[in-house]
Hints:
Elements (H helix, E strand, L loop, with lengths): L1 H8 L5 E5 L2 E6 L2 E6 L2 E9 L5 E7 L3 H15 L12
Antiparallel strand pairs: 1-2, 2-3, 3-4, 4-5
Amino acid sequence: xxxxxxxxxxxxxxxxxxxxxxxxxxxxxxxxxxxxxxxxxxxxxxxxxxxxxxxxxxxxxxxxxxxxxxxxxxxxxxxxxxxxxxxx
Length: 88
């Protein structure tokens, strides 16, 4: 995903962390999770339970997910301190 985002959306500098079958791609304030066959990230909204809402795509939907991740990343640029972007 990191390579795809750099090549197709000019988003670089992601940090990748892995632990016990879960991968995390940090793009500034945006955290993208890869686990249980899905790619997910915060929408920036809170649910009725007060927890951050997330968007998810299946792992094989990389191109579609990358497009939405790039959109969310651009929404967040310059907006430090939003409550729902740091999940985990």
